[in-house]
């Protein structure tokens, strides 16, 4: 299993706050809000700035009501639904995120296709899970800070995603509803213990979508970092090289 890189060792953390990132982040923003990208759309850079785009498929796992659909919306900068409706099938959302690699200073656009599928639909239709699993690069395992059973079930959930056909899958754990601390059912010490024993980073999310970037940057940077690291390990290279590069965005 590829080791998890120490946080902030591969990509520049908080790059969205740096001046030199403005040119890139402006391509994923529109009137200070996140731009929505359809399946065939991508950020357009001026011709003299060549940026490679790396593509990844991410599956969001977790029981009904844990916050899968809300997380996909949050990461894309969309409004979070107030009401809970069970997602009826597979919904995909495209998120672009510019990243600066620490060692080379190279900038990449990460294109993350998030796959969100309702638990009931997964249970009822056998063909959905295989298509979610096909060519998947990472899984976000969600638990809710307000639901102890979702936390206790994590190891069980993660065991179902052991390596398939030699392909390594990045696994990150995300605790949702961190804002509802009055109803918190999962102690900080339990989270720490889980992190130490599983070796998986645990990220936290919750609350209103504030400025659109600072809110999601830790999660997206952590995801990008782990995906890139995995590619480097797979490519057997010490320099950070990706086999998934898909050409230059002009
Ligand atoms: N306060 C708060 N509510 C959340 C959060 N994430 C999700 N919710 C709410 O929890 C409910 C279920 O979320 P949803 O994303 O639809 O769950 P799903 O079944 O896993 O897709 C919805 O009413 C959301 O508004 C969060 O981080 N904080
Ligand atoms: Mg849903």
TrEMBL record:
Its main location: cytoplasm. It is found in: Cytoplasm, Cytoskeleton, Cilium basal body. GO terms for biological process: cell projection organization; exocytosis; protein transport. InterPro entries: P-loop_NTPase, RSG1, Small_GTPase. Keywords: Cell projection, Cilium, Cilium biogenesis/degradation, Cytoplasm, Cytoskeleton, Exocytosis, GTP-binding, Nucleotide-binding, Protein transport, Transport. GO terms for molecular function: GTP binding; GTPase activity. The keyword Ribonucleoprotein does not apply. Belongs to the small GTPase superfamily. Rab family. This is Ciliogenesis and planar polarity effector 2. It comes from Labrus bergylta (ballan wrasse). The lineage of its organism: Eukaryota, Metazoa, Chordata, Craniata, Vertebrata.
């Amino acid at each position: 299993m590829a080791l998890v890189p120490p946080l902030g060792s591969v990509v520049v953390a908080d790059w969205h706050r740096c001046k030199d990132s403005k040119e890139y982040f402006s391509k994923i923003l529109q009137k200070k809000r996140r731009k929505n990208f359809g399946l065939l759309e991508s950020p357009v850079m001026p011709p003299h700035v060549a940026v490679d785009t790396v593509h990844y498929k991410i599956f969001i796992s977790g029981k009904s009501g844990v916050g899968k659909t809300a997380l996909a919306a949050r990461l894309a900068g969309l409004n979070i639904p107030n009401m809970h409706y069970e997602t009826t099938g597979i919904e995909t959302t495209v998120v672009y995120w510019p990243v600066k690699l620490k060692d080379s200073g190279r900038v990449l656009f990460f294109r993350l296709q998030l796959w969100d599928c309702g638990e009931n639909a997964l249970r009822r239709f056998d063909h959905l899970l295989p298509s979610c699993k096909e060519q998947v690069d990472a899984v976000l395992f969600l638990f809710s800070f307000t639901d102890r059973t979702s936390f206790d079930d994590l190891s069980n959930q993660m065991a179902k995603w052991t390596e398939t056909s030699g392909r390594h899958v990045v696994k990150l754990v995300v605790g949702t509803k961190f804002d509802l601390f009055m109803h918190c059912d999962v102690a900080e010490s339990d989270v720490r213990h889980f992190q130490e024993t599983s070796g998986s980073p645990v990220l936290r999310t919750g609350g209103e979508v504030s400025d659109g970037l600072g809110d999601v940057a830790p999660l997206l940077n952590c995801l990008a970092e782990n995906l890139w690291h995995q590619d480097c390990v797979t490519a057997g290279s010490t320099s950070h090289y990706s086999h998934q590069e898909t050409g230059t965005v002009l």
